[in-house]
Each structure stands twice: as C-alpha cells, then as structure tokens.
Design goal:
Aldehyde Dehydrogenase, Chain A, domain 1, six-stranded mixed sheet, alpha/beta, 2 domains, 15 helices, about 450 residues, Aldehyde Dehydrogenase, Chain A, domain 2
C-alpha cells in the first residue's frame, strides 16, 4: 500500500508457504557450488552490472521506494545511489577473498589458509531502507561465492522483487539469488531453520531478533542488526547553528524511521535555551506530505501500526507533562487518510517515559539539559542499546575522549547520527547487535566465509 494514500495498492504478492521457503533454500544450495566455482572476475562482472542497472534506472526504483515506503524522492534516489555503491564495492571484494601464509614451525612444512564461501546465506531486510540494506547484505555474500535467499519486508515487497529481477538481468545465474515474499509464520520458521542455511543476516526489531535466535538452525551463523536508542550531545562550545542543523537532520530525515535516528539531544545547560530555539526553527521549517511532491521534507510513516503507535506515544507524553516546543506543518493538499505524523520537538519529558527511555523510531526528538560531558556520557552509556551517538564540540580532546568512552559501535563527531559509508564497518554494541560480525566494507567477508588452514609437508616422510 502507498502510505501517503493507503487506499492505493502499489503491488500484490502471494505469501510464500513453508514449502515455498524450503524449495528456495534447496534451489540456492544446488546453485551455490557452481557459483562459488566461477572465477572471481565472473562474479565481479555480474555485481558491477547490477550496480550499472541500478544507476541507469534510479528514477524508476526511487519512485517505487517512495510509493511503498513513503520517503521523499530525493532520499529515495540517494538510497538507490548508495545501493549501487554497495554492489560496486562487493565487485572489488570478490578479488579479496584472500588467505594468508605463516612462518615455518616444523621442518619442510608450509602453512597457509584458504577462505571458502559458507553456501546458503539468508538475508532478511526491513522496510525503512528496502534497497540499500538488501544490497549491503546480498552483495558481499554473492561476491564471496555464496547463494542467497532474500526475504524482504512485506511492506516493501515490490522493491525486493525489483532488485531480484535486476540481479537476474545483470547475469547472476538462476538459483543463486532466491526471493521469498510474505510474512507467513510457518514459512519464516521453515526458512531460518532449514539445515542447508549456513548464515542468517537480519536487520529489524529486537523482538524479531529474539525470535530468530530461538528459531534459527542452531548451526547457522547469525548477524543481527537490531534497535538503537541514540543520543546526540551538544557541548557548550559547539557551533550551535551547525549542531542544530545536524541534530535536526539526524532526528527528522527519513521521518525518523532509521535505527540510527536521534531520539534525544543532551545539551549543556548553559546553552540549552539558545540551542533549543535554534533547533525549534529547524523543526518549524519541516513540511509533511507525499514524498513525490516538491517542497516536502518529511513523508508519511510507512505503516498503519507505526502511525497508531507514534500517535499514542505523543498523546501519552503530553498527558504526562511533556511540553511541545515546536512542530512541523502538514501539507494542505494531501490524502487525509495517509499515515501522517508531524515532526515534534519535546522538552520536560518525565524520566522513564517511553519517549526518552526507549527507541522512538519516528519523527520525535526530546531536548534534555545536562551539566557536563561526563553526565552526557553516563546517560549515553546507561542505555541497554549501543548503536550510534554523536558529540558536537570544537575541542579535539573532548571529541576524542568521548569517542573512546562511548559504549556504542559508531560515534559521530560534529555530524548527524544517521548516514554511513559503504567501506567502514557498520554494527552496534550491546542490545543493538547479535553476533560478532559487523556489516559493511572488507569486514563483510568475515561473516560470509569460513577459514580453512592447510599444512603442506613437502619434505621426505
């Protein structure tokens, strides 16, 4: 459904059954060996061709992303560009599935390692970045010689089908990338528990991550990117205008529906009032409406459940005493049935309220005054999640000390919490992650390959 006009059907797909899921896994297992046996150049050529096709059809896929997920067209085009980068990087990774040699420890014996693909990798992706997160999981797995069973979110099933079609057109052989649609519980259990599945890469909620841990094939390797409860810190010496722009972008871009979005901003008490007003100006400038309309900065939330949850969260916070500092504006010419949530800046939210105690995953931001950087660090590190945090300061020593001590997988300095490159690793700490394998860059190969040690004795026996 189109979240800007929920009566509009974008596409129809059939829920896969358990039998469908198992058939996809078996087909992938059959295709994995021949794909792994191809020269690295052959796999790299196919992945480069996927990138080329995404770039050639950027308007086509961006329009589909906006229709299914709701984000503005500019953001959807940016996501498509990032996805092409992921496939180009993976084409290079195909040449970097490397081993190592080791010093001789016994006479006439040479030791070295080989990297081997795991076989079948399952990629389960969410709706908020339906193309780029799929690319980040699928492309490195294919580069290393694995076959992939791809399970996109049912909210963005069309984007998943589009990517699978582009991969086939680009030359990824039949069977190597399998597509399983839907949300039938029996099918999902069959998919992740299949004995042929060697690894599962999942991005989504903590709750579903816990289910995966219980239901997955116990021998399968897990890579779980889960929730984030992310704070930005603004020090008294920060460039307040620049910080306000970055904090607003991190909180409200993508309608706040990113695991890396900023939920709360911890501001030095000495500049809290001044900073809050500058931030409020940014919020008042936000315009909510259909993502394909000029001038719109914020699209609808992606699902009816999101709309209901966020509407209730705001009502609950205000009833508990929270103060609304500023709000964005709704576009007049819009479908009133759309899943609209107005960006809102809050203050004076009671301690322990869900608006400040947990992941928001929507266009709400709370200002919290703090007395020192040490207090801010304590607040950041007290969270059970540890995905990303940001600090805004002109002092290099403060920035470096904060980066060292923050218990998060990602630290941004004078930047928004959202956004990441394709080459650096991406992964959270604590409850934000499950498994020891971050995504992204060259480290992506660690998750999708096994290491084999070989001892070659070349002397007389």
């Amino acid at each position: 459904m189109d979240p800007a006009s929920p009566g509009t059907v974008v596409a129809r797909f059939r829920d896969a059954t358990a039998e469908d899921a198992l058939a996809a896994v078996r087909a992938a297992a059959t295709a994995a060996g021949p794909w792994a046996a191809l020269p690295a150049a052959r796999r790299a050529t196919a992945l480069t061709a996927v990138a080329d096709l995404i770039e050639q059809r950027v308007d086509e896929i961006a329009t589909l992303i906006t229709r299914e997920e709701g984000k503005p067209l500019g953001a959807a085009r940016g996501e498509a560009g990032k996805s092409a980068e992921q496939f180009r990087l993976a084409a290079q990774l195909a040449y970097l599935v490397e081993g190592a040699t080791y010093p001789q420890e016994a006479a006439a014996t040479f030791a070295y390692t080989l990297r081997s693909p795991l076989g079948v990798v399952v990629a389960v992706t969410p709706w908020n970045f339906p193309l780029s997160l799929a690319a980040r999981k699928i492309a490195p797995a294919l580069a290393a010689g694995n076959a992939v069973v791809f399970k996109p979110s049912p909210v963005t099933a069309g984007v998943g089908a589009w990517l699978a079609g582009v991969a086939a057109e680009a030359g990824v052989p039949d069977g190597v990338l399998q597509l399983v649609q839907g949300q039938d519980p029996a099918a999902m259990r069959a998919l992740v528990a299949a004995p042929e599945v060697a690894a599962i890469s999942f991005t989504g909620s903590d709750a579903v991550g816990a289910v995966l841990r219980r239901e997955a094939n116990p021998r399968a390797r897990l890579q779980l990117e889960l929730g984030g409860h992310n704070a930005a810190v603004v020090c008294a010496d920060a460039d307040l205008d620049a910080a306000a722009a970055k904090v607003a972008g991190g909180a409200f871009d993508l309608t706040g529906q990113a695991c890396t979005s900023t939920d709360r901003v911890l501001v030095a008490a000495a500049v809290a009032d001044e900073f809050t007003e500058r931030l409020a100006e940014k919020v008042r400038a936000l315009r909510v409406g259909p993502g394909d309309r000029a001038g719109v900065t914020t699209g609808p939330v992606a699902t009816a459940a999101q709309h209901e949850r966020l509407t209730g969260l705001k009502e609950s916070a205000v009833a508990a005493g929270a103060r609304v500092v500023a709000e964005g504006s709704l576009d007049d010419d819009r479908d009133p049935a759309g899943w609209w949530v107005v960006p809102t800046l809050f203050a004076d939210v009671p301690d322990g309220h869900p608006l400040v105690a947990g992941e928001v995953f929507g266009p709400y931001l709370t200002v919290v005054p703090v007395d020192s950087v040490e207090e801010a660090l304590a607040v950041v590190n007290a969270s059970s999640h540890g995905l990303v945090t940001a600090v805004h300061t002109r002092e290099l020593a403060v920035a470096h000390r904060f980066a060292q001590r923050a218990t998060c997988g990602i630290v941004k300095i004078n930047d928004r919490t959202t956004g990441n490159g394709v080459a650096p690793p991406f992964g959270g700490w604590k409850a934000s992650s499950g498994g020891a394998f971050p995504e992204g860059g060259r480290q992506a190969l660690d998750f999708v390959t096994d290491t084999k040690t070989v001892y070659l004795h070349y002397g007389e026996s």
